[in-house]
User: Fold these one by one.
Assistant:
Number 1:
Amino acid sequence: MPSYINWDASLELDLPQIDNDHRELVKMVNRLQVAMEAHAEKGILADIFSRLTEYATTHFKTEEQFMAKIAYSDLQAHIQLHRSFVVKIFQMTEDYLSDKETGNNLLEFLKFWWVAHIKSEDYKYLVEYRNKKLANKNMNDMLDW
Ligand SMILES: [Fe+2]
């Protein structure tokens, strides 16, 4: 089995609500791994999957609202990445539960996707947000977001 995701400063965006979501999602992926390693029943795993996907979907909505609020220039492309993730994870989960996909592949995908997404894609809107804030003091109310 692959190693767990370690939360560290490189995953922090300094946006409390979004960071909290990300931290919880990382915990959920790690918990999924614990359950898989303990050879939990498929029904229990299916439960964890659906909670994870539900949490991710809610998180994506929060993030999309934030990006819309700051008029993020690449909003549509980012929304598309979220949608693709949901489609892919549904398919992989279904395949895993019907033994057409390994737990390792599923975990590797989840970990790779979240870490890469936060560090590259989420970081892009963070940079734009910071630049806009510097350029326009009227956007300071966004600080309270
Ligand atoms: Fe995102």
Number 2:
Amino acid sequence: MRIFVSGTSSGLGLHISEELLSQGDYVWGIGRREFDIEIIRKSGQENFKYSQCDTTVYSQVKNTFEQMVESGFIPDIAIFCAGSATEDIAGNDFSLDKLRKNVEVNLLGVLSWVELLLPHFLGRNRGTFAGISSMSTFRENHRKRIGYSASKLALNKCFENLRLEYSDRGVNFVIFNMGRMTKTRELIGVSYEKASRLIVNMLKSDRRPTVVNIPRSQFLLTRAAELIPEKLFRRYLMG
Ligand SMILES: NC(=O)c1ccc[n+]([C@@H]2O[C@H](COP(=O)([O-])OP(=O)(O)OC[C@H]3O[C@@H](n4cnc5c(N)ncnc54)[C@H](OP(=O)(O)O)[C@@H]3O)[C@@H](O)[C@H]2O)c1
């Protein structure tokens, strides 16, 4: 399969790319930094293409998209891992500019790719968009960031609407609400390695998932935490 992955230069996007390459898929990844292809395991390097592209700069997105089309690389699945959790609150100050950055990466940086890829997916009645969101859309647990969960929640709602519009034309929009992710397994959360395996397997299955919460244990805790009054939650459960 051909898969587009945003935010492939580190964290979840890198692990998902490696998982896909190990399964023999072709991956086109993007990120802002220069990326040393040697980071990718030798066996997968020839099926991997990387473009330096800031997903908030439309001209760069369009240019990368045009390169993909010219190379005949219309993905079967597009996975959006690029994310921003920039602090937009500091002391007495709230910065609209910093909030805007969260919205531009987490929401608009996904939708600009949807705008470009959707006609191709509809043209062949097939394709999956996968948005990487967060469990903080259920119970807020971030301090100093008012734009992070808000932009992720907006993404979830956009994908819900897009599903209503297009899922009967063969195009699916999946949201993965992720809990805490770490390099190695810890008590709460999930390792990048396990998360990427679960996401890839789910996307390749015939189940046509819509909303997936990973890991399940943290999802149950998060939903239970919604029952705790905000005042108590803030005082006793937030750092
Ligand atoms: N880590 C967690 O515990 C956690 C929990 C819930 C949800 N999530 C979500 O899961 C996703 C992956 O998280 P992560 O932990 O893997 O994050 P990460 O390690 O910080 O990786 C983020 C990736 O996004 C890319 N990126 C950021 N801004 C970009 C832009 N403007 N244009 C293109 N690429 C951009 C970065 O590459 P460059 O720096 O090269 O641009 C990097 O590859 C994010 O959407 C995050 O919000 C994470």
